[in-house]
Amino acid sequence: MILPISALAANIASTSGTVAAKTAIRFEELGLSPVALSIGSFQLKWYSLAYLFGILLGYWYMGRMLKAPGAPMAQRHADDLMLYSTLGIILGGRLGYVTFYRPDLYETPLEVFKVWEGGMSFHGGLIGVLLAIGYLVWRNRLSYLRVGDYVACVVPFGLLFGRLANFVNAELWGRPTDVAWAVIFPTDPDALPRHPSQLYEAGLEGLVLGIVLMLLFWKTQVRHRPGFLGGVFLAGYGIARFIVEYFRNPDAHLIEFANQTGMSMGQWLTVPMILIGLYLIVSSRGRTAKPLPATA
């Protein structure tokens, strides 16, 4: 009996999926747990520690950069900025997630503030950090672009740890695939082999972008061109995120949005980042760094 083409295609797809499932990595085999420490009813999760590690490492690296000639602020400014930025990351990240991805949570206001249950948006956190920089600059009469350049160099630390924590949490996984490194996540109700898109983001947004910014800061003089490093970060992150979104599975409640608009919510949010980043890079040629005010 000759099968119709549609039935034959479905049969091939089913066979391919079965083979991929047999060769895929099962998340449980990795021995990872979202809980780092458990004492009685108290649980300390890697997701929380990832934010802590990212902030502390970023603070340490900021101190190293401020020792280089021509720094736009003093160490005491960095101390204040750490506090402001931490608040901006937490509040902005959570409100950004609710606004961009889960507006339905506004119907139950208490759910909005349950940060410990997960659900943070990078774009919301970025807005929070930008506001934190603005407050610091306003209080101390500093250069917004130059302070922003230095902050841009430390953000990849947080992105790296944050995306690794997403992987450990078995969340934000990718689209179904048959690649050799596909992972079957226990949180996937379909139990399909999927792209470990969290690791793609950790590699591109955290590791690669971080190394590029380090090399530009220490091996060139572009840190004296206000806005350049910030522009590289915005454009670099935007491009990396735009690419990874093709491998990342859209949130269930946003699949229809992606189908209607042709791009995911994450991609739409990166477009202005890329454009602003490119503008800052190009326009930085006409800007020069000014000395730190004596009274700052």
Beta strand count: 5
Sheet with most strands: strand arrangement:
1-4-5
Helix fraction by DSSP (H/I, runs of at least 4): 55-70%
Contiguous runs where pLDDT drops below 50 for at least 5 residues: 5-16
The gyration radius over C-alpha positions equals: 22 Å
Q: How many individual helices?
A: 10
What's the overall average pLDDT, rounded? 89
Order of helices and strands: HEEEHHHHHEEHHHH
Gap between N and C termini: 84 Å
Q: What would the principal axes of the Cα set say about the shape?
A: globular
- Assembly type of the chains comes to single chain
Tally the structural domains.
1
β content, as a range?
A: 5-15%
What summary fits the major beta sheet? 3 strands, mixed
Provide the structure class: mainly alpha
Membrane topology: Multi-pass membrane protein
GO molecular function, one term: phosphatidylglycerol-prolipoprotein diacylglyceryl transferase activity
Family: Belongs to the Lgt family.
EC number: 2.5.1.145
Can you tell me about this structure?
About 60% of the residues lie in helices and about 5% in strands. With about 300 residues, the chain is mainly alpha-helical. Strand 2 (about 35-40) and strand 3 form a beta hairpin. The strands form 2 sheets. The chain has a 3-stranded mixed β-sheet. It is a multi-pass membrane protein. It comes from Blastomonas natatoria. Keywords: Cell membrane, Lipoprotein, Membrane, Transferase, Transmembrane, Transmembrane helix. Belongs to the Lgt family.
